[in-house]
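Troubleshooting: if your tokenizer reports a length mismatch, compare against these two reference records.
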Amino acid sequence: MTLSGVLQEVPESAWFKSSYSGDTGNNCVEVAALAGRVGVRDSKVRSGPALVVPSAAWSSFVAFASA
């Protein structure tokens, strides 16, 4: 299965925004936990492209961003 096929099978309910994101729709990303990976997309363009990274890379990014 291709990566785009994997993303098409991710239900909308799997995507979520940070609790720091407001309801104004400005500058928000959504993430979805996938098998060993994390999907990241623009919350304003849900049907647009998504970035998929290994779970370990996402964890490293979050740790760096919160430091």
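Reference record two:
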Amino acid sequence: MPDRLVVLYRGNRPPATGLIERLADTVYATEEELPYLLPGADALLAWVTITPAIREAWPDNPEKAPRWVHAASAGVDSFLFPALVEDPGVTLTNSSGVYNEPIAEYVLGLILALAKDFPGTWEHQQHREWRPHQSETISGRTALVWGTGPIGRAIARLLRAAGMQVCGAGRKARTDHPDFGTVHDSATLHSALAEADYVVLAAPLTPDTRGMVDAPVLAAMKPGARLINVARGGLVDEEALVGHLAAGRLAGAALDVFAQEPLPAESPLWDMPGVIVSPHMAGETMSEREGLIELFLDNLRRRAEGLPLRNVVDKRRGYVVDSNPPPL
């Protein structure tokens, strides 16, 4: 049992607090309370993950810092600050796996909404206007999924099942990937962008990927293509994206994440034709909280029994690299 587990929450505490408390000496902290409760804790469950509070509350003395941090999210960019990354005694785990299918379903829904112009149909309905119009088919269209981790693979499988042609973009090129078939690296990325009708971002936000969808990448995309981002807003140069959308070079975009969240009211993205804005909810489902806590409890039991943890993050790369042991 950890000497002390701090649970960082905002608004509502996680479910199954009774189970957590039976397995660990548990205290609960808001973001404001964290600086007072984190020093000396053995473990941290970050039920809130997109926050500067963890970085700001992290003890200056490494001996006072937690030895294990678990993120209730797949993305861990908020945790990749030097004091945590450079301390070899701190293990970081995430919630990879919980969001795979929900985000894949959301991406398919966004592609269908764009291709069938559901937003336009709903707008006509609000005005009681009867306007039949032709829509696009997605069968046979090409989707480039940028990010070949578990979420990207789930997206690829679902889009392929819907009849789309799918390829991937990642660190290493290959032609025999079980979900993507072809995976492009930087050497062939621009040629792949030129062929893709939809570019789907599913990569983690790391120092290497921040701003990766910049003006040259957008210019390399196929005229009339659409961009979908369900990863992190920091992957995209939003000013360059607005420019390409305004010029009509891209047909549209579906954006669930943004450089600044909530998206400022003055952002032109709110009103641009062909753009769908959603409030960072691609992975949120009615069963999300239960899945997140089940994974954390599994790891909490593993740690108490000295077993390998699931979803150990390579802190230098910013994502899970090695295969995980099965659930208990």
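Descriptive notes for reference record two:
- The chain has eleven helices and 15 strands.
- The chain has a mean pLDDT of 96.
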